[in-house]
Amino acid sequence: MANDVKREGDGKVAVVTGACRGMGLAISKKLGSMGYRIVMTDILADEVAAASASMNANGFDTTPLKLDVGNEEDRSSFRQRLGDVDFDRIAVLVNNAGISPKQPGDKKAARPSQVSLDEWNWVMDVNITGPFRMSQICLPPMRKAGWGRIVNISSRGGRTPANVAGVHYVVTKTGILGLTRSFAKEVAPEGITVNSVCPGRITGAMTDGSPPELIESLKGNIPVNRFGEPEDIGALVGFLASRDAGFITGAIHDINGGSLMI
């Protein structure tokens, strides 16, 4: 957005996966307000293009890119498909894209014994291999600059048993925490931080359409008595991407309205 005061993201690029809606869109807006040029990636090409156009109309600087983070061909060609975006200016990566398959006609996942191998592999490719490879791909310009931020979006389901998410989702979101620590330890001496964010129940696609009785039951387990908003996550990610967060790395940041403490 236009501003005469130099912002810390000016001249730098931030990559956000799963950026067309919900938390990804809120994160993109927050980083955009910090001056970053945002590469908004999503598997939903039309939706991410529309989201990018809307943001640009409001003074942001974004570029949409169709990207299936679960597909190695898409991942490995990421740099070549950036167009006029300068790859060497990438300073922030937010691994937000993720999936949580549910049973047909239901908002709950299949029991562990019922999950097919194909579905298991699909979730692994998107939720854990995707962030792993995108981190590998986006690290070189951060290393060259001696500064960078990687934020991995995990989940409360990666911290405690989940009643709605499937075993594959829980395993990948738990794995994200280990992935975060491993990368954080490697790159800490190079001025790069790597952190994970574990949202609790956030309004959006994964809550829309849930039965009212389930909604009220879930709210009853949240001390602040509400679901989080995507902007709550955007604010936390924005801080972790800032210079002020330079002494924080390899950490788990719970943002769940207090639900983890009960």
Description:
By secondary structure, this protein is of the alpha/beta class. The protein has a single domain (13-255), classed as Rossmann fold (3-Layer(aba) Sandwich), CATH 3.40.50.720. Helices cover 38% and strands 15% of the residues. The protein has 7 helices and 7 strands; from the N terminus they run βαβαβαβαβαβααβ. A 7-stranded parallel beta sheet has the order 3-2-1-4-5-6-7, sandwiched between helices. Helix 1 (22-33) crosses helix 7 (230-240) and helix 4 (117-145) runs parallel beside helix 5. The longest helix has 29 residues, at 117-145. The protein is globular, with a radius of gyration of 18 Å. The termini are far apart. The model has no long low-confidence stretch (mean pLDDT 93).
Q: Give, in spatial order, the strands making up the sheet with the most strands.
A: 3-2-1-4-5-6-7
Low-confidence spans: none
Number of domains: 1
Please count the helical segments.
Answer: 7
Major sheet summary line: 7 strands, parallel
Instruction: Evaluate the radius of gyration.
Output: 18 Å
Question: Structural class, from secondary structure content?
Answer: alpha/beta
| CATH arch. level architecture | 3-Layer(aba) Sandwich
The total count of strands amounts to: 7
Quaternary state reads single chain
Shape: globular
Q: Summarize the helix and strand pattern as letters.
A: EHEHEHEHEHEHHE
Helix content: 25-40%
Features:
262 residues; alpha/beta; Rossmann fold; 7-stranded parallel sheet; 7 helices; 38% helix; globular
